[in-house]
């Protein structure tokens, strides 16, 4: 979780926007909207999720690696964990 209140606020705004987009897809499916319009909304959500990942990653790096009071071993462990997460996300 981001330590800075402004980072947390930005991330929560993104999450709420994504929830609204997902609700929009559910409504469109229930209403029988044509597939191309729903697919476009899915593309929008994918972009929003990528933005969320970027914000969370930036906040985490800032909190743990830049401004955190960690030693070299702790920083290396954090880098390894971030690397695993990115590899998983980029599959």
Describe the structure.
The protein contains 3 helices and no strands. The protein is an all-alpha fold and 91 residues long. The protein has one domain: Metal-sensitive repressor, helix protomer (Methane Monooxygenase Hydroxylase, Chain G, domain 1). Helix 1 packs antiparallel against helix 2.
Topology of this protein?
Blueprint (H helix, E strand, L loop, with lengths): L4 H27 L3 H32 L5 H18 L2
How much helical structure, as a percent, in the residues?
over 70%
Overall mean pLDDT stands at 90
Uncertain segments of ≥5 residues (pLDDT<50)?
Answer: none
Count of separate structural domains: 1
| CATH topology tier name | Methane Monooxygenase Hydroxylase, Chain G, domain 1
Structural class: mainly alpha
N/C terminus separation: 23 Å
Number of alpha- plus pi-helical segments: 3
Shape: elongated
Number of DSSP strands?
Answer: 0
Specify the CATH homologous superfamily: Metal-sensitive repressor, helix protomer
- Going by CATH, the architecture would be Up-down Bundle
CATH class: Mainly Alpha
Strand content: under 5%
Q: Give me the strand/helix succession.
A: HHH
Sheet with most strands: none
The radius of gyration over CA amounts to 17 Å
